[in-house]
Design a protein that fits this description.
It is a single chain. It is built from 19 helices and 16 strands. It is α/β, with parallel strands linked by helices. It has 3 domains: 124 residues, Alpha-helical ferredoxin (Fumarate Reductase Iron-sulfur Protein, Chain B, domain 2, Orthogonal Bundle); 161 residues, FAD/NAD(P)-binding domain (3-Layer(bba) Sandwich); 149 residues, FAD/NAD(P)-binding domain (3-Layer(bba) Sandwich). The strands form 4 sheets. Strands 5-4-3-6-16 form a 5-stranded parallel sheet, sandwiched between helices. Helix 14 packs across helix 15. It is globular and about 70 Å long.
């Protein structure tokens, strides 16, 4: 390594951010890159640990120690080559990945982990800036054609890999813009849409065909793809939202998170939105759900001019540091306040929504109760949840956003036409080669494993591409 004791010499640096006062006035990305000298020192913190647990923590097995050392030695083009050898889209993961690699970093056992995510983003941006990344068409084309359903991270990774193998690839996207939930689900202040367009433009130049406004199972039958292509890969997103079926759910002003987020992304892109416009401006907003999607709704509500924002979480607040039963190198279940939380949001933990209250058909209040949790069950690992007596209370709400996770893909004739098998969670069943119950039709990403991380979707796409390539050859 560049400096064997660099982790003792240099402190971890976080990306600099615009002040809250400034950034809530726009929807642009607000983190500022570290200088080259700062990045060099951060690369030097990567120790010669012998067994790089960061790689095992990374779903795409990034060669993290190698490119950290190359950054330290100012070899940016070589660093980009190593990074792109395992990750098709580091410009996405460098922005939105929760960095499980850093949770597995050896330095992180007893001090702040290496700034892996910041370095990853810097490498790929430097590569684009200096022209290291150029369209690379395959030297030889096979006579095989593959259709990919969905242009999210799994679909894009699958397309990129199969194109590199020489197959002719066509990607079908049901929306008017490429990127799936990267484009319409994640706010611009976390992932600017020109970053997605930059990548898809590159993929087009490399020979990949994209067809938008093409909803397979609705506009086009999957049997048509089956007849036209040598293989089909299903990479749709998990977009069926989990509902909260309590008294008053029918009141106006209660919306699913993705309906809210997609509208704002369409506004930012000067695209049409539905007539049922959702706006937080001047309203008391309650976001139910404490995950990343809930956090995105908070940041968006604040930028829209919400009067107040409250975030409700069913589970108790996590500890500030790892619990004894959550040791390194596992993912650390600790309290993480997002940048959206920092922008002005009240958080309530261990509360359950019992009912929505309103008048004239509009929601006005939430009826809540506080919860207590017992010790984890030895068999299931779950903690018994009970309501605390006399702890009921109410909060005002003009707009309620449900960010409770997802229950799989949206149901249509995509799967039913060919009777493609699914499990109890509506995920598509596949063998160890990612083949579904129908020969020649494969699956990957959220449609295969359920709602997950962008980096895991990329890994699924890379893996299914290998299986499809072997099948075609």
């Amino acid at each position: 390594m560049g400096e064997v004791k660099g982790f003792l010499k240099y402190e971890r640096l976080e990306l600099k951010k615009e002040s809250v006062k400034v950034r809530v006035k726009h929807y642009n990305e607000f983190s500022k890159p570290l200088s080259e000298d700062e990045l060099k020192s951060q690369g030097a913190r990567c120790m010669d640990c012998g067994v790089p647990f960061c790689q095992s923590g990374c779903p795409v097995d990034n060669l993290i120690p190698e490119w950290n050392d190359l950054v330290y030695n100012n070899k940016w083009e070589d660093a980009a080559e190593r990074l792109l050898s395992t990750n098709n889209f580091p410009e996405f993961t460098g922005r939105v990945c929760p960095a499980p690699c850093e949770n597995s970093c050896v330095v992180g056992i007893n001090m702040p982990a290496v700034s892996i995510k910041s370095i990853e983003k810097a490498i790929i941006e430097k590569a684009f800036e200096h022209g290291y990344i150029k369209p690379k068409l395959p030297k030889v084309r096979t006579n095989k054609n593959v259709a990919i359903v969905g242009s999210g991270p799994a679909g894009l990774a699958t397309a990129d890999q199969l194109n590199k193998f020489g197959h002719t690839v066509t990607v079908y996207e049901k929306n008017e813009v490429l990127g799936g939930l990267l484009a319409l689900g994640i706010p611009d202040f976390k992932l600017s849409k020109n970053i997605i367009a930059r990548r898809t433009d590159l993929m087009k130049a490399e020979g990949i065909n994209f067809k938008t406004n093409s909803n397979i199972g609705v506009d086009i039958k999957i049997s048509e793809l089956q007849d036209k292509f040598d293989a089909v890969v299903l990479c749709g997103g998990a977009e069926a939202p989990r509902d909260l079926k309590v008294e008053g759910r029918e009141l106006n002003g209660i919306h699913f998170a993705m309906d809210f987020l997609k509208q704002q992304n369409r506004r930012n892109g000067n695209r049409k939105i539905s007539n049922n416009e959702i706006s937080a401006k001047g309203k008391n907003v309650v976001v139910i759900g404490g995950g990343d999607t809930g956090s995105d709704c908070i940041g968006t509500s604040i930028r829209q001019g919400a009067k107040s924002v409250i975030n409700l979480e069913l589970m108790p607040q996590s500890p500030k540091e790892r619990a004894s039963n959550n040791p390194w190198p596992e993912w650390a279940f600790i309290d993480r306040a997002s940048t959206s939380h920092e922008e002005g949001c009240e958080r309530e933990f261990a509360v359950m929504t019992k009912a929505f209250i309103g008048s004239n058909g509009n929601v006005e209040k939430l009826k809540l109760v506080r919860l207590k949790f017992g010790h984890p069950n030895s068999k299931t690992g779950r903690r018994e949840m009970t309501e605390i007596s006399n702890s009921q209370f109410e909060i005002e709400a003009d707009l309620v956003i449900l960010a409770l996770g997802f229950l799989g893909h949206q149901q249509n004739n995509l799967l039913s036409e060919l009777k493609i098998s699914t499990d109890q969670r509506s995920n598509v069943i596949a063998d160890n080669k990612y083949m579904t119950s129908v020969d020649g039709i494969f699956t990957a990403g959220d449609m295969h494993v359920g709602q997950s991380l962008v980096v895991r979707a990329i890994n699924e796409g890379r893996n299914v591409a290998e299986s499809v390539d072997m099948y075609l050859r």
